[in-house]
Write a structure and sequence with these properties.
Length: about 325
């Protein structure tokens, strides 16, 4: 009888352990840092660079499968906070309220800054107005400057139409919060696409911004810098010779001497005004595939990919060069 009672108690304790962990999604994990399957929600503005990182990681680890969800930054964070995914790539850290929601779900938030990104301004090839100050950009976004002639009286272009990717994108959030300090943006500032969730990079809204600028000589496009700097992105590289990238200045008046393009070096030196951190956010347990992928991106190989894509890596890869006093015979 005692033996039977012991079996009953063990069964009850096992059931309690199982059901008490249901809200924590306790499952049998079979993944490792280099194998298995993991889903990551990605700010679509960062799609080219993350796509390259995934391809490189999977090439080195054939048993690993990283499935990206390219969407707006807001949706990527919502998916993470609601525990629909356990990994996200964004250009902002989580708010205190978002952290509290994750904590209340009995999950532990970890994050890794992997790069410093730049926001690029692009214009049509026919537009010769390729110098702007940060102050002028702010005036354009607020509707205080509406024509290219207000920037350069000799300009042959007309009214400015500002286009960005989507209403909930990290790009428009940065412009609104960091540049315009929360002021209402002009009605001339418009989203080229609606919010979407897709795993197909070629349908991305940033690409539509590039295409719009190619077809509209008076447009000013706002996109992530890796959309115009990644040579592996063959879908967009054909458009590069049809647009111009605007050089920006921190000074009140933009000149060729004080204005800079969003190159990785200028981003690193702080010369280019529009920059932001890139975060990999994790709520998954340590030791799984998500952790392995983050470690790869933050490591030497992953950081070299970021540098090649035109972003400033968080850990700058170094190369040791040995100089000999005499030439070898």
């Amino acid at each position: 009888m005692r033996y039977g009672n012991l079996i009953t108690v063990c069964c009850v304790l096992a059931s309690m352990a199982l059901f008490s962990g249901c809200d924590r999604r306790v499952v049998t994990r079979t993944d490792t840092p280099v194998s298995g399957k993991a889903v990551v929600a990605v700010d679509e503005c960062l799609a080219p660079i993350i796509n390259e990182e995934i391809n490189a990681f999977q090439g080195l680890n054939p048993e690993a499968s990283i499935v990206p969800i390219y969407t707006t930054e807001k949706e990527a964070i919502d998916l993470l906070v609601n525990d629909s995914v356990r990994m996200a790539v964004t250009t902002r850290a989580l708010s205190d309220n978002e952290k509290l929601i994750i904590k209340n779900r009995k999950l532990r938030l970890r994050f890794q800054v992997i790069a410093i990104d730049g926001i690029a301004l692009i214009v049509n090839k026919e537009n010769r107005d390729t110098l702007l100050s940060a102050g002028q950009l702010k005036q354009i976004m607020l509707g205080e400057i509406t024509s290219w002639k207000q920037i350069d009286p000799t300009s042959t272009r007309g009214n400015i139409t500002v286009v960005f990717d989507s209403p909930n994108s990290s790009t428009v959030r940065y412009i609104s919060d960091s540049l315009c300090l929360g002021q209402t943006l002009s009605d001339r500032v418009r989203a080229i696409g609606q919010d979407t969730v897709t795993s197909v990079k070629t349908e991305a809204a940033n690409q539509k911004v590039i295409e719009y600028v190619v077809g509209h000589p008076d447009a000013l496009g706002i996109i992530g810098v890796n959309w115009i700097s990644s040579q592996n992105d063959t879908a967009n590289f054909g458009f590069i010779d049809k647009i111009r990238v605007v050089a920006l200045s921190r000074a009140d008046e933009a000149t060729t001497e004080n204005s800079y393009l969003p190159y990785a070096g200028r981003i690193a030196l702080g010369d280019y005004p529009l920059t932001r951190n890139v975060y990999m956010l994790l709520t998954d347990v340590s030791g799984g595939l998500p952790s392995g992928f983050v470690a790869f991106v933050a490591g030497e190989k992953g950081q070299r990919i970021i540098l090649k894509a035109g972003l400033r890596p968080q850990t700058v890869p170094t190369r040791v060069i040995q100089v000999r006093q005499t030439l070898e015979k």
